[in-house]
Amino acid sequence: MNYLFIHQSMPSQFVHLAAALAGRSGNRVVFVTRSEAASLPGVQRVTYRTSRLARESTHHYVRLYENAVLHGQQVLRECKKLLDGGFRPDLIIGHPGWGETLFLKDIFPDIPLLSYCEFYYHGRGADIGFTPDQPSSLDAICRARARNAHLLLSLEACDRGISPTQWQRAVHPAPLREKIAVIHDGIDTASIGPDPAARFTLPDGRVLTAADTVVTYVARNLEPYRGFPQFMRAVPHILRARPEAHVVIAGGDGVSYGRVPDGGGTWRERMLAEVGPLDAGRVHTMGRLPYMLYRTLLQVSTVHVYLTVPFVLSWSCLEAMASGCLVLGSDTPPVREVIAEGRNGLLVAFDAPEAIAARAVEAIARRDEFRTLREGARQTVIERYALEKCLPAQLRLVQEMA
Q1: How many CA atoms lie within 13 A of 63 on its CB side?
Q2: pLDDT digits (tens, 9 = 90+) for 203-213
Q3: For labelling alongside 232, which of 16, 84, 183, 291 has CA 20 to 30 A away?
Q4: Structural domains in the chain plus CATH codes
Q5: Could you tell me the pTM of the whole model?
């Protein structure tokens, strides 16, 4: 069988599925991507570049759509080259988020297309206008509707869709929701788990273990969508209440979602200026960590704070749960799907820094009592999100389609 994967950041959500298909005898797997460095064993990478980006003169409501068309057009050209070279896929699996799947049915009208349905934007009731940090306006609401144009066209064209969580499926248009299956990407619980002997070394050489008091916060980038301002406003309260506590923050200074701070700079700089001087011997900003160090950080965590607006659920939330962390999560729809208060974690209002601090302090004080929550967190991931269950479900869907 021939499989064609499409995602600008290979391999991303398709890392396990593409590798599994490539590992089967007789399969040929081709991955079209913008990434020039990524690789998977047995997978042929085809790299593309757009001819240009949307022009500044384009109306800002449709600038994203113009970019989507440019991405879709270039992917179409690469697919035409593949077809002319003798490669005809039996199944196409792609992420529509950047427009890359827009025109696939125009060159492969009879080939089944599986679309990764990660998110569908809404002007009200989801991420936009959720916090005072990012107030909505009529302009923002209208722009959210317009930015769905390429997602809607891609969803209409695909044969089946796949969403990682029930809530992410639910934000898609009701008339098209039936074609979307809910199967998570999969968490490798065989390699991600508790380790009482774990040791995390700070930049100054000090070593943290599970016996220490460690408050952790992790995000790809430190930004409002993942509650970074709210967490930082909680940190001084935690430090005052627990003089022995260390706060370890991991994440980059870019922006994955939302906007950069008004006036420039980074959200880390903005929040450090807002909350005032913090004890550098107790608050440690690590930047982006290599995966193995990130995993070790979770293993020494006393309480792990995971905050998000109503948006895509991060892998880090489930990886923290799989690591046996006591997760203090925001009381928002994507988090409530995986964390039940008092059963496998704790919930707190998203935009309530003092409440976040109070619950973190409570979690520290009751760490022994909350051991069952840690066990429940890992068990939840094993039962519902483990790779050994999710990957076979993905492969069954692929087999049905192909």
Answers
A1: 10
A2: 999 999 999 99
A3: 291
A4: 2-186+386-401 (3.40.50.2000), 199-384 (3.40.50.2000)
A5: 0.92
